[in-house]
# Entry
Amino acid sequence: MAKILKIYPDNPQENLINEVIKTLNNGGLIIYPSDTIYALGCNIFDIKAMEKLAQLKKIKLEKAKFSIICNNLSHLSDFTRPIDTSIFRFLKSHLPGPYTFILEANKNLPLAYKGHKTIGIRVPDHPIPQLIVEKLGHPIASTSIKDDDEIIEYSTDPELIAEKYDHLVDIVIDSGYGDNVASTIVDLTSGEPEVIRQGKGII
# Structure
């Protein structure tokens, strides 16, 4: 059964965040809030956790395009090729925020991302994922939670999410109702911003 942790963005309890970190370090899957929608996450350096995340999404890990959640831009050089000053300024002006930026990947990607030419980077404007990444010491892998409803594309109620994923994840962070608009995906690999999916963020 998934453990439900009520963690509020205005005052995240350190002991509960530490419990999340312990779960991630032990290969567990979490559901967490962001500045857009609720998402599934795990430790990017734990290949078994990444495989579980892929199974949950019913895709092969090598075909998965899981975003990398950072708490700031300091991790960029760990995963991406050197970027132009103009692109870096563009990123700084939009992050943290409701965007996923596609950048060229370098050869130092975690094992689960090996062979990927590009990588999606997210820096959510939300204290809980930022704190999780900060305390963990490195980014987490992430993928959005889709709803079965044809009208409402994304699940917003953490209690219903917890019910649905009860035996599939280890922790559900209940931070109140989430949004139902995903991040805007912007491809920066050509050097010019190209919107791939229009979401919450405006470019």
User: Anything to note?
Assistant: The first helix runs from residue 14 to 25.
